[in-house]
Design brief:
30% of the residues lie in helices and 17% in strands. It is α+β, with helices and mostly antiparallel strands. A hairpin with a 2-residue loop joins strand 3 and strand 4.
């Protein structure tokens, strides 16, 4: 065993009534020839042995031992849990988990499953035993928000959706065991480190400097299938709150405002996705939020809170204050369909710092549509580190 010395925001929203979500398919053969789908590159592809394709049942994992060992709160608890996890690991797993900080590795995230992107660093969840998974779960619970379908709960639901996908499609590479976690830099009271966690449709990039969360971006979420899915003993619906809040924001615009907010271009996916860190437009486009009423602005903030509220309450409050102060310099844009139904429906918020995109995608593994969404900060992605 290796010894390591230890140096909510509840997403409030004003949501309008919306139509029923798309029906979920039970089983489907994968689509062929989709240029946006890495499946064409991976048919018959064998994956490294670390990808186990097993259901780890994260919801059933106990955090009792981690909670007993780390009864602190906030950042002190996060450090204790990080040390507790590292102390339990073999030298090999320790070396995979604890890495030197580098922006190069911080950028190794993706929305693709491992058969579409194999560059992630860190052990898979399937490499940990139950007690170690308890520490990982407690770490994520401490770092993330606590609202239903947001923060940690959203992450657990996304694990369950991957278990659903492998159950329904049988395709190697999906499953909760294949998500990965890493510490980029040593968790400590001083210095810079990132809690990096991700897998299919998931990227968490929480970067801490001298004990303070200074960046939670890039933050990617997607969900296939879209809507409520029964899996692993619970209902899972990780992305509907974001969808509904953004729909309510657009539905509150009058005809003239909606026309002004419509973007000249259509979009088949998010613009500033993985490995597209600087892919922001050079000029603002759409409707200035400064022109909105107080009620309409409240709906914008409610939508933003469903993203910022994914992190723990104190940093979420600080981040929301920045975006609220910059709200009148932020723009709304949409294309495809303003009700965000159907493939190609797209909406974004573009501010001095805030960058938020939500894009409806065609089904990749199951029929229907599903969302991709990214929250970035133009100035503060990766805590503002460039190299």
């Amino acid at each position: 065993m290796r010894h390591v010395s230890r140096s909510n925001l509840l997403a409030a929203s004003i949501i309008a009534c919306v139509p029923v979500l798309p029906a979920l398919a039970q089983q489907s053969a994968p689509p062929e020839g989709d240029p946006g789908n890495p499946r064409g590159q991976r048919g018959g592809m064998s994956l490294p042995d670390k990808y186990l394709n097993e259901n780890i049942h994260m919801g059933d994992i106990s955090t009792e031992a981690a909670d007993a060992a780390c009864d602190q709160e906030g950042y002190d608890r996060l450090l204790c849990l990080a040390d507790g996890l590292k102390n339990s690991l073999s030298d090999e797993l320790f070396a995979e988990l604890q890495r030197d900080y580098s922006v190069e590795e911080a950028k190794l995230w993706s929305n693709f499953p491992p058969m579409g992107f194999s560059g992630r660093v860190g052990p898979t969840l399937g490499a940990f035993d139950a007690a170690q998974l308890g520490y990982v779960k407690a770490l994520l619970q401490t770092a993330m928000g606590q609202a239903a379908h947001e923060g940690y709960d959203e992450l657990e639901e996304l694990l369950n959706l991957d278990d659903y996908l492998i159950q329904e499609t049988g395709e190697t590479g999906f499953s909760s065991s294949n998500f990965q976690v890493a510490f980029l830099g040593t968790p400590s009271e001083t210095g810079t480190w990132e809690l990096q966690y991700g897998g299919h449709h998931t990227a968490v990039s929480n970067t801490y400097v001298d004990g303070v969360l200074v960046s939670a971006t890039p933050s990617f979420r997607g969900a296939e299938p879209f809507g409520t899915v029964e899996m692993n003993g619970r209902e899972n619906d990780p992305m509907t709150q974001e969808w509904e809040a953004l729909r309510a924001m657009l539905a509150a615009l009058d005809t003239e405002q909606l026309a002004q907010a419509k973007l000249a271009q259509t979009y088949s996916d998010v613009v500033a996705g993985p490995q597209k860190d600087d892919n922001f437009p050079t000029e603002k486009e759409g409707l200035p939020i400064a022109q909105l009423t107080a009620g309409q602005k409240a709906l914008v903030l409610a939508a933003v809170e469903t993203y910022v509220g994914d992190v723990a309450a104190d940093p979420a409050d600080r981040i929301m204050k920045i975006y609220e102060d910059q709200l009148d310099e932020t723009f709304i844009g949409w294309s495809g369909a303003s009700d965000l139904n159907g493939s190609g429906a797209y909406v974004r918020l573009d501010g001095p710092q805030l960058w938020l995109e939500f894009s409806m995608q065609p089904g990749r593994s199951l029929p229907g549509i599903h969302p991709h969404s990214i929250w970035r900060d133009r100035e503060n992605d990766y805590a503002g580190n460039l190299d």
